[in-house]
Amino acid sequence: MKSNQLNSMLTISVLFIYRNRPLGFILKRWSNPRKESVPGALRLLVERYDSTSRITGHAIETSLNNERAMAHDMKKYSPAELENYPGYHIRRLQQIAVAVFVEETSAWGVTPVQYAALSAVLRKPHVDQRTLARLIGFDASTIGSVIDRLEARGLIARIGNPKDRRSKMLEVTAEGRQLLLDAEPAVLKAQERMLDPLPPGKRKQFMETLAFLTEANGDIARAPANGSFKSGSEGA
Questions:
Q1: How far from 113 is each of 80, 137, 146, 173, 204, CA to CA, in Å?
Q2: Which residues fall within 8 angstroms of residue 72, CB to CB, at 6 or more apart?
Q3: Nearest to 133 by CA among 63, 57, 65, 222
Q4: What was the pLDDT predicted at 48?
Q5: What span, in angstroms and rounded, lies between the C-alpha atoms of 161 and 234?
Q6: What Å distances lie between residue 45 and 8, 27, 49, 52, 63, CA to CA?
Q7: Best CA proximity match to 10, nearest among 56, 41, 49, 48
Q8: How far apart are CA 175 and CA 156, in angstroms?
Q9: Eight-class DSSP state of 37
Q10: Is the pTM of this model over 0.85?
Q11: Which ranges of the chain have pLDDT less than 70?
Q12: What whole-number distance in Å separates Cα of residue 129 and Cα of residue 159?
């Protein structure tokens, strides 16, 4: 084995053994009159330590003092209250909205996303999956599972796309239309319950603010909603 390889291995071994000790401790252990017995890399450290021991010792002590000060500050650290974060209230409100929707529409057994998908396809027939995901602001990689469940219940159907054989178009079945018609009163009631705690005079302002924040932050959403329900527009 070459000398430089041996020195490297010895250096790594010593640093491993003393990995939890301060640098000054390691150097002192190797600082002795017989420096010729010290591996080359460590010998250089020892020589530098011998010539600058005071400076090195001061630097180490300063570093330790800084670490103690940081640890002391961490003990006094207290995070801000979650109630002061808008994200906390938005997440809680979303949970409430889902719970109210599911409760009011339990007779039809649809989730908010499933209902949104059915409604969007009925309003814009023959869209493909990606277009539907954009229309309702849903993740394109998981919209397929939503459609699978609706298709299994006979509420939506996949049909061939004459313009692109690789994709399928979507259309709502007669059963799906009937479900939307029957469930609409319950869905509207759920929306009213969500806003019921607000005074009637503030509900319009709340909806406008909510729509503004959603649109303004749409570009950073995981599933931005940038579709259009205008009649005559074609799916992607």
A1: 33, 10, 8, 17, 24
A2: none
A3: 222
A4: 55
A5: 12
A6: 13, 7, 6, 10, 19
A7: 41
A8: 8
A9: G
A10: no
A11: 1-60, 222-236
A12: 12
